[in-house]
Amino acid sequence: MKVKFWCSKESLRQEGMPWGAIVTFNDEEGKMFFDYSAGTFQGNYMKGGMLYVDCKPGDVIAVGQGSYGGCMPMEDIAFYTVEKNGSLKRFTGE
To answer: Terminus of the chain with fewer CB atoms < 10 Å: N or C?
Structure first.
């Protein structure tokens, strides 16, 4: 399934290119790993566009804009779990 997020042209200009990823966890070290290949943005800075994330129920996904790969503050990343019905449940990890 694909979940989608609308990104306005204003947010693109102010915050940069949106990205989405599937998040997995290393239980031994407690580290998160981001698979950025799951996210695809279709749009442009003039009109805005849609960010699509390929995922399945039970996945944890992360969505952000601008820098990625550990270069942005964690509080600027939105984390969601994908529910069985395809809806998203946002969480903070607390």
So the answer is: C
